[in-house]
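Quick one:
INPUT:
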């Protein structure tokens, strides 16, 4: 969503990141979590707690980093992250 907003729709990257975080919080995450819970795919409470803490710490650190670097560096970091995720997903698909 961030890439689409910033690259294709020319929304400033920091605003695109904020919109992405807002849009993914309630309308997407909670209904999907409800389906997984209803189907019995609930992980352990320890895992859930770790994920929640990781999300809180990670989003805070990411937002602070996004405002601490200049626009060009932020754009490069986004590209590096997307490429790293694509490589990781490709490696997982091939195993």
């Amino acid at each position: 969503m961030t890439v689409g907003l910033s690259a294709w729709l020319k929304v400033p990257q920091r605003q695109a990141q904020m919109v992405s975080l807002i849009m993914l919080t309630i309308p997407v995450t909670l209904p999907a979590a409800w389906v997984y819970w209803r189907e019995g795919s609930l992980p352990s409470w320890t895992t859930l707690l770790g994920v929640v803490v990781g999300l809180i710490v990670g989003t805070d650190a990411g937002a602070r980093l996004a405002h601490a670097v200049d626009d060009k560096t932020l754009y490069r970091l986004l590209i590096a992250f997307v490429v790293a995720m694509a490589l990781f997903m490709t490696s997982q698909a091939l195993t």
